[in-house]
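Quick start: what a row looks like.
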Amino acid sequence: MTIFHHVNDLPSGVDFGPVVAVDTETMGLSVQRDRLCVVQMSAGDGTAHLVSFPEPRYNAPNLVRLMANDQVTKLFHFGRFDIAMMQRHLGVRCTPVWCTKIASKLTRTNTDRHGLKDLCRDLLGVELSKQQQTSDWGAPELSAEQMAYAASDVLHLHRLKAALEGLLDREGRRNLAEACFRFLPDRAALDVAGWPEEDVFAH
């Protein structure tokens, strides 16, 4: 595993190919209250790039350009939260997107375990550590343990996508999944706008 740590923006010229795995670390799980601290990315090649924001000042044009690039699919696990946090703090609409959690829920209906740790264990035979999940991601300096944890959250997403695509095809649900992925940036926009819990489609 190779980790590159950048502060405040991604360097220009980094090529992630047609699909970039993306995750975020934040001060908490409230889109309205908490701030974005880290965005981590990988091309699925064992290398991860981390962009950290030690202070709540966001001017990251290279990162924004990548997230808005309609020629690059942004691959998430529970993308709804990450997309919303980047919409709010970076002012970018991430599209197109793909979410392993949605794909898992549409295919692995034999279980209610759809967390990243569960998917990596069940589909890839990989055990992830979640020890640093609740650490202080707003600290001025990230520890080696934090950086390794952040990297691990994106290094396996490409392989998970491939496994889940096979399940989507087997169950005949690829079109439904792709419709969900197209809607995901709008679902995130509802979260940012103040409708995080309400189902606007309900009666």
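That is the whole record. The longest helix spans residues 174-193. Strands lie at 2-7, 19-26, 36-42, 47-52, 73-76, 97-99.
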